[in-house]
Task: inverse folding
């Protein structure tokens, strides 16, 4: 019975959020991490530089939401709302970054793929939470 609890995909949100947090510190384009790009753009374009912190912010939000449902099953809808907020931050980041960095997307490195995988896992976690039944 204990093994079934780990196989019902309740850890997708924690893994997806962790991937988003980890992607902040991995190389994205031309060997630069998002943290490096944040520091670089901080002196050039301050309003655009904070966009590079969105993956770590959305990862922290989604990990918090995933831990909330593990803490108490009654917070299912709250967790979905929190995960949608975190996923929204990540999608804003992608919709702003991809057109700007389009020539470099072909040469994307491992951080980009970790972020995409994290976003997909969080989306599947939302679907899993919405499809799961309440315990009677």
Result:
């Amino acid at each position: 019975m204990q093994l079934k609890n780990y196989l019902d995909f309740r850890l997708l949100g924690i893994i997806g959020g962790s991937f988003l947090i980890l992607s902040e510190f991995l190389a994205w384009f031309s060997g630069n991490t998002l943290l490096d790009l944040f520091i670089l753009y901080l002196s050039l374009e301050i309003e655009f530089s904070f966009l590079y912190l969105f993956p770590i912010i959305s990862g922290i939000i989604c990990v918090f939401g995933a831990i909330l449902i593990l803490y108490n099953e009654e917070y299912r809808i709250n967790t979905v709302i929190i995960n949608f907020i975190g996923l929204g931050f990540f999608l804003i980041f992608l919709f702003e970054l991809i057109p700007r960095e389009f020539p470099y997307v072909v040469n994307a490195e491992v951080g980009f793929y970790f972020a995409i995988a994290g976003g997909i896992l969080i989306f599947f976690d939302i679907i899993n939470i919405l499809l799961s039944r309440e315990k009677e």
